[in-house]
Design a protein that fits this description.
Helix content is 70%, strand content 0%. It contains 6 helices and no strands. The longest helix has 27 residues.
Length: 164
């Protein structure tokens, strides 16, 4: 019997394209969240900004690996993807505690999905040069989930929007 999961291997070009496109989207999402929380919850804004910086570091790592593999064209740059205002939330800035809690919960959910995405890329990897990178990315995404969960756990709805 043929195991379809084990037989699915992606080419390095595919993996680099998927990983970089995903990280660019994550970077933009964290930047948007950072700005959304800035006026009323600077502590949350700083957290989202730090998570965005981690996305930038992962993109730099992907560019380095792509360069060594001579596949630079497969890595998307943040400037290449423009934000879609059609999918932008109705309210850009966080206006109330319920909205803050909802955005934090959404960030946690997406972080968990992103960790699963990079675990899948690791499982479908057949390129030795990408193995360590994806192992590191999975570990970093696990830490990201943990940080977001810990932050959310220590923030009650009214405390989320308290100025730091």
């Amino acid at each position: 019997m043929l195991d379809m999961q084990a037989s699915l291997l992606l080419l390095p070009q595919e993996q680099l394209t998927l990983a970089s496109t995903h990280e660019v989207a994550e970077l933009q999402r964290y930047r948007r969240l950072s700005l959304s929380f800035l006026p009323r919850a600077p502590q949350v804004s700083r957290l989202m900004s730090c998570l965005g910086l981690q996305c930038e570091k992962r993109l730099d790592t992907l560019r380095g690996v792509a360069s060594r593999l001579e596949l630079e064209a497969c890595v998307t740059s943040p400037a290449a993807i423009t934000a879609s205002f059609a999918s932008a939330p109705r309210h850009f800035f966080v206006e109330e505690d319920g909205m803050a809690v909802q955005l934090l919960d959404q960030a946690i959910h997406i972080a968990v999905e992103t960790k699963r995405f990079f675990a899948w890329l690791l499982e479908t990897n057949a390129t030795p040069e990408l193995h360590r990178t994806f192992v590191d990315f999975v570990r970093e995404k696990e830490a990201e989930c943990h940080v977001l969960l810990e932050f959310r756990e220590h923030q009650t709805a009214p405390a989320v929007l308290r100025h730091a």
